[in-house]
Amino acid sequence: MKRVFSGVQPTGNIHIGNYLGALKQFVELQKENQCIYCIVDMHSITFPQDPKQLKKNILDVAALYMAVGIDTKKSIVFVQSDVPGHAELAWILACNSYTGELSRMTQFKQKNKGRESAPTGLFTYPILMAADILLYDTDIVPVGNDQKQHIELCRDIAIRINNRYKNTFVVPDGRFLKAGARIMALDDPLSKMSKSAENIHSRISLLDEETKIKKSIMRATTDSEGSIKFDMKEKPGISNLMNIYSVFSGMEICEVEKTFEGKGYGDFKKELVQVTKESLTPIKEKYEEIRHSKELLDILKDGAERANTISEKTIKRVKENFGLGL
Ligand code: TYM
Fold first, then answer.
1. What confidence score (pLDDT) does residue 166 get?
2. Mutate to test the pocket of ligand 1, among 24, 143, 191 (most ligand atoms within 8 A of CB)
3. Is 111 a residue of the active site?
């Protein structure tokens, strides 16, 4: 059995990009692997968070994990800050990584745009992410395309340490879906769909009302040509919508093209609204059931205990190999 690890930041507005790029994979991978899914609250404080809102967002993500189909009897679900090993290992990894490689991270460059000085945590974000992964001897990391560079860095650090010290870490592989790995903003198909974009119609959040879903899709940017053909370069708007349709409906892109041959964007968008609603309604219903149940806190507590047991073993091995402590 392979070990799978991934995480989502509790920063609100979990959207269909997060779902189609990452969460959907989380659910599929449970069948044949031992999966560990984390709510990475320590990553979220790389930008200031309102403490009350953060607590709420943590529980929202936990409930969403379960609502999309993560089975907490099989998989471990827990909150990152409940397991001290993440921060501990992050320091050790920081001592084995370089400012040069961190400076090359495109996500850092984007998030730090226009600032003279960066919060240190934002700069070292990928190291904490590497610690999350390596702490659990992870084989597979299901994520969206935007995390590719972070996974590469994690692998580099693991290989470097394995070469410098005894074989200490399992070197993980990223897992990216063919469709869904990069869902673009509905109002700007050249930017990735994001939780923090100002325009709420740039994204569809998993908990959006039906009227909001319809509005966001019907006003999504397309082009003036009017034919439903997949061409990410020349027709990024409609191609992004086709991508979303393809993953929600389970149809290949070529089937989508065939189905809508000769039809207009308006007709296609109506069908996309339908398939999106059909996919999100059961998630919303399940979420409502779980979100305020007492069970949710118990599950997270149990998850943290199980995660801590694994983490402590890794930390012990790492300290031993590095000659740390007595
Ligand atoms: P976060 O919360 O920003 O994103 C969660 C997951 O959603 C994916 N994603 C997307 N996929 C497709 N299209 C999009 N528009 C889109 N936007 C986001 C992300 O790739 C991610 O898989 N750094 C991670 C959190 C993290 C983590 C980890 C992941 C921290 N430690 C260890 C894996 C392993 C992140 O981006 O979270």
1. 87
2. 143
3. yes
Domain 200-287: CATH architecture, name and number where available: Orthogonal Bundle (1.10)
Q: Is 192 labeled as catalytic in the residue annotation?
A: yes
Share of the chain above pLDDT 90, in %: 96
Residue from 5, 8, 65 whose mutation best tests the ligand 1 pocket (most atoms within 8 A of CB): 8
φ/ψ of residue 249, rounded to 5: -90, -15
Distance CA 30, CA 69 (A): 10
pLDDT value, residue 179: 81
Verify whether ligand 1 is closer than 6 Å to residue 147 (CB atom).
yes
Token reading at 84: 């001290």
DSSP H helical segments within the chain, as ranges?
A: 16-18, 24-29, 41-44, 51-68, 85-94, 99-103, 106-111, 120-123, 125-134, 148-164, 210-218, 236-249, 253-259, 265-291, 294-322
Q: For 15-29, what is the mean pLDDT? A: 97
Identify the residue whose C-alpha is closest to ligand 1 atom 18. Answer: 18
pLDDT at 280 over 90: yes
pLDDT 10s digits, 131-180: 999 999 999 999 999 999 999 999 999 999 999 998 999 999 999 998 88
Whole-structure pTM value: 0.97
Residue 90, ligand 1, Cβ within 6 A: no
Q: 3-180+294-322 maps to which CATH number?
A: 3.40.50.620
As a whole number, mean pLDDT of residues 97-120 equals 95
Q: Could you say which of 192, 214, 235, 269 is catalytic?
A: 192
18 lines ligand 1 (CB under 6 A): yes
